[in-house]
Amino acid sequence: MQHTLLRPTILPVLLCAAALQLSPARAADPAVPAAPAHPIVGSWNWTLFGGKCTETFQYRANGSMLSTSGDAVTEWIYTVTPQASEKGFYKVVETSTKQNGKKDCSGDVVDEPGTAHTRFIQFSPARDRFIACKAESLAACFGPLSRTQW
Question: pTM of the full predicted structure?
Answer without folding.
Answer: 0.74
